[in-house]
Amino acid sequence: MSRRAPGERIGTGARLADGQWHRLHPATPVLKGGIALVAIVGVIIVNLRDLFINIIIGGGDSGGEEYDPLVWIYEHEFAGLILLAILGGVLLFVGGFYVSWRMHTFRITEELVEVRSGILFRTNRRGRLDRIQGINLTRPFLARLFGAARLEITVAGQNANVQLAYLGSAAADELRREILLLASGSQSSAVETTAAGGVIGQRVTELFAPERDPNVAPPESVVNMHLGRVIGSLLLSGFTVIILGGIIALTVVTATTREPYFLFGFVPGIIGMSGYYISRFTRSLRYSIAGTPDGIRVGFGLLSTSNETLPPGRIHAVQVNQPLLWRAAGWWEIKVNRASNSSASGAGGQANTTILPVGNLTDTRRVLELVLPGLVDPAAIDLLIRGMLSKGGDDGFTNSPRRARIIRWFSWKRNGFAIVPGAVMFRRGAIWRELVVVPQARLQSLGMHQGPLLRRLHLASLTVHTVAGPVVARLGAIDAADAVAAFAAIERAAVSSADADTSHRWRSSVPSAVDGDPEHTEPSQAGRR
């Protein structure tokens, strides 16, 4: 295995996962500190504009008024010293970021990813490859101009992520591939990639192609996001309903009190709401989701792009929901629970937990087949679809009894559960439809609750505990006898599924890639459509 000096520049075809220490992209000091430096210089120039105008076109006597401090410095010939001090501060600022870059190194071994950083106070972060929950490759617009990208390895645990900001764009693609190969239990091999067209051609390619290597992820997404559907889903969302209610209430208050000053208090809210809509909208632009041999690849973004790979077995719960206003259009949203979240989230963590922002029934089914590879049986998929669309009754789910209508006025017919090979399904809600699916191998614990009211009605509630996230796998108001039977059945199925689970080393049982080409590797179940 070849050794690389810490100061050697990272090239496109360089092996970064060779166990040796490497440095980040040379433009990292500019991307991290250059923007702040430009802002500081801009503030100085703005404050000096009056002085510059006075020097260039001349100025009259101040008429005995107190001098501006900058004018006083100039007239007493301290300007040279001040400029030298500013220049020294800028050099110190730039030098600090340069030294920080020199001291920031990383290495990838067969067991972990390790990062060392800090000048006076040294830090050392390590993430085990067998605990990787996903790899997020983000290309902010400014970084894309420099041919750089930010790679974040999300690891199970609180604040356990390891971030490499920034790497060369091609090097980041290769490193993601190498880390996934090592984490999967397969032997990695070097792949040399060549960029044609020179530096300018390479930058243009990176700006218009968020996925550089079409062999790593299929170029075709299983879902095509339509612009009209995205706009419609935002306008018909529950957030819009809340906004309309607030506008009506504000109008009534203003008309009643005849005080227009209440309208000024709504201005910050308008700004905040605009930011929410913009974040949700841009999150859905150029959206793509596809299966790969190393898991699910989710991408989005226009100017700044993000592509995250979720290895098999890293999704702990799935929720399919449909707001009332979406029902006429037949739209659905899919959210997931993961053991760790990337810091590159937006719109309330949507970038990490919302796998499908909006889609019709066909899109939803395709995405569910990706995120729930254990439910490949057509009968299980059909049961899942019935769980989304059915109004209740004899549809394969064990539903709440009629006496539960006292506490589930509208939804007692739909409120139910189903146990299929590999997963547990909870269905609830008649106005806001929800279906929660928990893979049995990801189940952490199981709880059953019966309060005084539920005990009197011979009802109980079941809770399947997973990692924290937006999905809550809880079902209330079901028959007590059915809850006891389900508790025992889910317990047995969870133990059996956990013993048979090998998703933490998803490539260990299949042949490794030939000459590093993933097309010669038998894809895992997560990569099949």
The poorly predicted ranges are 1-14, 60-65, 190-196, 345-350, 510-529
DSSP E strands, number: 20
Q: What would the principal axes of the Cα set say about the shape?
A: globular
Structural class: alpha+beta
How much strand? 15-25%
| Rounded average pLDDT | 78
Distance between the termini: 37 Å
* Main β-sheet, spatial strand arrangement: 13-12-11-17-16-15-14
Main sheet summary: 7 strands, antiparallel
Question: How helical, in percent, are the residues?
Answer: 25-40%
Number of helices: 15
List keywords for this structure.
529 residues; alpha+beta; seven-stranded antiparallel beta sheet; six-stranded antiparallel beta sheet; 15 helices; 20 strands; globular; disordered N terminus; disordered C terminus
Describe the model.
The chain has 529 residues and is α+β, with helices and mostly antiparallel strands. It contains 15 helices and 20 strands. The strands form four sheets. Strands 13-12-11-17-16-15-14 form a seven-stranded antiparallel sheet, with helices on both faces. A six-stranded antiparallel sheet has the order 7-6-5-10-9-8, with helices on both faces. Strands 1-2-3-4 form a four-stranded antiparallel sheet. The radius of gyration is 28 Å and the shape is globular. The two termini are 37 Å apart. Residues 1-14, 60-65, 190-196, 345-350 and 510-529 have low confidence and may be disordered.
